[in-house]
Amino acid sequence: MYQRLFERLSWIENRVTSLGEKPITQLKKLEAGIVLFGHNWNDEQVLKTQKQNFEWFGWKAPEALSFNWQYTQDANEESPESYSDAVAEFGVLLQLALPR
Predict the structure, then answer these.
(1) What would the 3-class secondary structure string for 37-48 be?
(2) Of these four, 5, 10, 13, 67, which has the most CB atoms within 10 Å of its CB?
(3) Of 75, 47, 73, 72, whose CA–CA distance to 61 is shortest?
(4) Hey, is 35 helix, strand or coil?
(5) CA separation (Å) from 19 to 46, 55, 77, 92?
(6) In 2-31, which positions are buried (b, 16+ CB within 10 angstroms) versus exposed (e)?
(7) Are 85 and 54 in contact (CB under 8 A)?
(8) Whole-number pLDDT of residue 91
(9) pLDDT higher for 98 or 45?
(10) 3-state SS, residue 2
(11) What is the rounded distance in angstroms from the CA atom of residue 24 to the CA atom of residue 6?
């Protein structure tokens, strides 16, 4: 879904820059955020990149509207136990019990 959003936004941006059409008024001066959940790889960089994408479209990306959670910084951690432990830790983060 997120990929589709950026495909549509890129299409709109191309119509403005390539064809000289006026920007869609409702898409100007927005604030946007994103929430990312990951297991073991590069969540902070992904968050930074996605916020830059929002800014590229002219939107504000306040810190309060975005965050990421990543279970481990070990990019090689792929054990079944690690994934089970991630579910438990994420449940604690959300202060509820998630079914396994």
Answers:
(1) EECCCCHHHHHH
(2) 13
(3) 47
(4) strand
(5) 31, 22, 48, 50
(6) eeeeeeebeeebeeeeeeeeeeeeeeeeee
(7) no
(8) 80
(9) 45
(10) helix
(11) 15
Q: Which two structure tokens, joined as six digits, stand for 10?
A: 């890129």
Using pLDDT thresholds of 50, 70 and 90, give the confidence band for residue 16. Answer: confident
Which residues pair with residue 69 across a beta bridge?
37
Q: Which of 30, 32, 31, 28 is nearest to 13 (CA)?
A: 28
Give 38: exposed, middle or buried? Use CB within 10 Å, 0-12, 13-18, 19+.
middle
Residue pair 55/48 in contact (Cβ under 8 Å)? The answer is no
Give 38's strand partners.
70
